[in-house]
Specification:
The protein has a single domain (54-186), classed as Orthogonal Bundle (Tetracycline Repressor, domain 2). It has helices at 2-6, 9-12, 15-40, 42-45, 51-79, 89-121, 127-139, 142-155, 160-186. The chain has 187 residues and is an all-alpha fold. The N and C termini lie far apart (60 Å).
């Protein structure tokens, strides 16, 4: 116990713990920002029935796909299978696969939200599928950001596995809410 009194708590943490702590702090801050953006756009979200059915799945999809992409690239970097270059063939194919998964998942989520909305409220509006697809296409922008950040962290000597999970989840939430707001304004 006396040891705690002699050193500040942050000095007791090793490098990995500091990286994780900072990433989690950013994640919590980003979550608060995302919630504020959703609260600000609530009146627009009410305009399209069933959007509340779609939103949780869509937010989770972005974090899951981005996190899986960052994890695959990070593992490949540490195993020496991938060179830390944006032009690497494996990185390009992973980015393409992630983009395809985003589009397919967006369509499936939109269709499920459409069917649930139709079943529970009797409202059939194809706009929910269009919103899901358009927001998915806009959120594909997060794929190169994920790859760039993973490579940047690796080149700087950080472990992307410590940082990318919370970072991608937060960035995915923010980008998804922005994509939804843009899509709702256009449609």
């Amino acid at each position: 116990m006396l040891f705690l009194l002699h050193k500040p708590m942050i000095q007791m943490l090793d490098r990995d713990e500091k990286e994780i702590l900072v990433a989690e702090f950013i994640s919590i801050t980003g979550g608060l920002l995302t919630g504020a953006m959703l609260a600000f756009a609530l009146n627009k979200i009410y305009l399209i029935p069933g959007l509340f059915i779609l939103l949780p799945g869509f937010l989770e999809m972005r974090g899951a796909l981005g996190g899986a992409l960052a994890s695959r690239i990070s593992s490949g970097l540490f195993l020496g299978v991938i060179k830390p270059s944006f032009g690497e063939r494996i990185i390009k194919s992973n980015m393409l696969a992630t983009a395809a998964l985003i589009i397919v998942s967006s369509f499936i989520l939109g269709t499920i939200a459409y069917m649930a909305n139709s079943y529970f409220s009797g409202i059939t509006s194809v706009k929910i599928i269009l919103v899901s697809l358009a927001a998915g296409i806009i959120s594909i922008l997060m794929t190169p950001i994920t790859v760039f950040t993973t490579l940047w962290l690796y080149r700087r000597g950080h472990d992307p596995n410590n940082i990318m999970g919370p970072y991608i989840t937060t960035l995915g939430d923010i980008m998804s809410v922005i994509a939804f707001m843009v899509t709702i304004a256009v449609i």
